[in-house]
Amino acid sequence: MNATGRDLPQLLGDARRWFEDALLATLDEAGAVPVSPTQARLFAVLDERGTTVSELARRMGVTRQTAHQAVHGLVADGLLEQVPDPASGRQRLIRRTPEGERAHHRAGLILARLEEELAGRIGREAVGALRAALEAPWGRPPSLDRA
């Protein structure tokens, strides 16, 4: 039995929210353009050369409509832009504007500081072990037989 009675996906979700909440609060205190947690996750999965809304939705695990709404808000704030996809006349790529690149860089610096803060709280060795476990190749998700 685990100590908290909570399963690993719940704990991983809480850990993600810890970083997300601290990132958004730090950006807010710095006077950055306010973004939602969904918009912050979208920024994290965006390719340098641009990504389609459908691919963003798949990477984020949300509907295409949710991804489109997040993109629309970030475009309106001047952080993202839509450009024609050179590989497809029908699709558009979403990419960061210069201001979006600056915001993405700032977020990366904040996340690195948060990782240091976490190491101070739970120990550098624990953070290293957590990182190693999450970076290890897990393989394709299994389809387990009914128990």
From TrEMBL:
Q: Which domain of life is it from?
A: Bacteria
InterPro entries cross-referenced by the UniProt entry: ArsR-like_HTH (IPR011991), HTH_MarR-typ (IPR000835), MarR/SlyA-like (IPR039422), WH-like_DNA-bd_sf (IPR036388), WH_DNA-bd_sf (IPR036390)
* Domain annotation HTH marR-type: ranges: 28-127
Which Pfam family, giving just one, matches this sequence?
MarR_2
- What's the name of the protein? HTH marR-type domain-containing protein
Species this chain originates from: Streptomyces enissocaesilis
